[in-house]
Amino acid sequence: MKVKIGDKVFNVAIADTDTKRQIGLSKLKKLKSGDGLLMVFDQTDKWPIRMSDMKFPLDLVFINDDKVVKVAHAKAGSKDVIPTKPYNKVLEINFGAGDGIKTGAELTEVGEKQEDGTIKMANGGLDPAGQRHVLDEDGKIQGNLLGEERIFSRKDTAKLMSLASKKDYKKLGKAVVDMIHTQDTQPPEYAKN
Predict the structure, then answer these.
(1) Is the pTM of this model over 0.85?
(2) pLDDT per residue over 30-41, tens digit each?
(3) 3-state helix, strand, coil in the chain (%, to 5)
(4) What gap in Å lies between CA 110 and CA 122, rounded to an integer?
(5) What CATH number is given for 2-108 in this structure?
């Protein structure tokens, strides 16, 4: 899943069970840049985060009701990190990746890549400000759409360009109409790659 905090976007796995939260990132030797783990708790509390099993340092972004309450730096193999404020989510990211994330910043879900290659957009691709995002194949935000704009996939754009270069305007027109029909009839939370 992709999440956004301020202007930073992370590709995260979700740990929403006791087992997943206990293991966390401890089985990894390193974390790819831009990746992370979002631990989700059923209740708000001052849950300790165990660092004794970690092989690399982390930034821990403590979140309550989708607002950042604290960002902490944690060394590998150190004592448990216990925040001073209660939280119900914690984002674990590479050490230093949390620099610039401010208290009060909002966590929003951007989208999740599905097995068939489509991207299931959180809230139909809308963020809390009502802005729709254009994502690349890895789910990173490339741009925003403000209204009823149309955008075509790379594959569809290549097809349209090929028809235009051949000056086959009848097929070009039909292809555009078919593509718009597909966009209008698919569920709004999906975007074709």
Answers:
(1) no
(2) 999 999 999 999
(3) 20, 35, 45
(4) 5
(5) 2.60.120.1140
